[in-house]
Amino acid sequence: MHIRKVNAFMPLFLSALIILPASGHSLTLQEAVLSASIYDSEISAARNAQRADSQKRLQGFASLLPVISLNGSYIKQDQPKATYAAGVTRHTYSLNLTQPLFDIAKYAAWKRGDAIANYADVVLMLAEQKLITRVAEAYFRVIYQRDVLKSAINAKAAYGKQLSQTEVALKVGEGTRLERDEAQANYDRAIADEIAAKNDLQEAGIIFSRLTGRNPDEIQPVVLSCIMRFPVSDDFKALEQQAGQNNLQVRAALFQLEQTKADLIAAHGAHLPVVTLQAGYGTNWSKAEDSNLLDYVFGTTSKTRSSNIGINVSIPLFAGGSQISQSVEAVRRREQGKDLLEDARRKARQETQSAWLKLKNGQNQYLAEKKALASAKNKVNSTAYGRKVGLRTIIDELNAEQEYYKSLQALAKLQYEYLNARLKLSVELGELDYSQLDQYRCAGDNKKSPLIKQGR
């Protein structure tokens, strides 16, 4: 099985080094992830691990190729007591070749090395996917907390204005203490909410900076209506089938299963003969020091050349039963791999269904909440007018304001949940990569969130 080349995103890294914006410039999600890809040490470690394990493919294939060796020696032998020579010098060299012709263990090592390398590729893709998910969640969290803070600030300003009005009305005798206390309670709650929102925004910014090394103030707001222009398929069966094939956890389990199959081949192959071609060529010669006719007579000076070629066959007969036990173990490991693969597929389908339902329901709920927000705003305006003509009280107006700001924050939360659900679905379908993040580039021309633009 062929999988996506894991180094396909490297050109994006090089581009990122050039296009990374300066401080103060709006930062898209894609740029944030590219920054994290360079900054994060965990993804760097994952790349090095993948590069190391990718060598298993070459190592496994190399075991099927011939082994060629060149051997040589130089020996000087002294013979102090010999009457015909003082010593002998011997020189040898040989060129040897060994080529496996039939060796199931080496074939299995090749298949296992290929499966390990493929598994390493998927593990790196999982690490990339995890990094994208973490950065995206931190990115969306900053946007959400920014909206919450702006909503809290607007609410505090509105409640502060109402508190001033009720205090003046109380002084001139046109208001009641109940109205003043109600306004005071809302104003105090708004102050507490603003403090909590600031803390949450700072915490979200810290997490984002730790992942990317970038300033969270650079984050560019995302317009959800723009994201929704990229439709999600209504054919859930097709999505479920895609998840069962392309989900990275499924693909990792598949290559783990391939490793167990290679181990099974090796275990069964241990019962089979091993056939090897062997060939060699070499020269041996010796020469006696101060040689004379006696050296030739007694053979202390000679030179020979030799060559050989042959087939070596090794047949295993009995190894104490260990080979049978290893075969049984390999069969069980393969069955375990099949079960893990099926479990990964079931989980992928289940998570895909969950993310798809959240996405579809979240989109409908978001559109409904936008209408509810518009209605809440109209209610605030109508209640304010009713108060002027004496049909509503300041308490009615305060309650209307409360409902409006609750709807505003609910809309911000729905946007946050929708973006995460869309991200989750991409993960389960095995689609989430650096290029797909370009969908989140669409944003408003101004720096304000589209949610806050609907505020008072």
State the main characteristics.
disordered C terminus; Outer membrane efflux proteins (OEP); four-stranded antiparallel β-sheet; 2 domains; 456 residues; alpha+beta; elongated; single chain
Structure description:
This protein has 456 residues and is an alpha+beta fold. The chain folds into two domains: 6-39 and 103-272 and 321-454, Outer membrane efflux proteins (OEP); 64-102 and 274-315, Outer membrane efflux proteins (OEP). The protein is 64% helix and 12% strand. It is built from twelve helices and four strands. It has helices at 10-19, 29-39, 41-53, 55-62, 104-172, 177-212, 224-227, 236-246, 248-269, 293-298, 322-388, 394-429, and strands spanning 67-78, 87-102, 274-288, 302-314. It has a four-stranded antiparallel β-sheet with strand order 1-2-3-4, with no helix packed on it. It is elongated, with a radius of gyration of 38 Å. Mean pLDDT is 82; it is low at 4-24 and 443-456.
Write the layout of secondary structure elements.
Elements: H1 10-19, H2 29-39, H3 41-53, H4 55-62, E1 67-78, E2 87-102, H5 104-172, H6 177-212, H7 224-227, H8 236-246, H9 248-269, E3 274-288, H10 293-298, E4 302-314, H11 322-388, H12 394-429
Antiparallel strand pairs: 1-2, 2-3, 3-4
Helix pairs in contact: 1-2, 2-5, 3-5, 4-5, 5-6, 5-9, 5-12, 6-12, 8-11, 9-11, 11-12
Tally of contiguous helical segments: 12
The level of helicity is: 55-70%
Rounded Rg: 38 Å
Q: What proportion strand? A: 5-15%
Per CATH, the architecture of the largest domain is Up-down Bundle
Low-confidence stretches: 4-24, 443-456
Shape estimate: elongated
CATH class division of the largest domain: Mainly Alpha
CATH fold-level name of the largest domain: Outer membrane efflux proteins (OEP)
Distance between the termini: 57 Å
- Average pLDDT confidence is 82
- Number of folding domains? 2
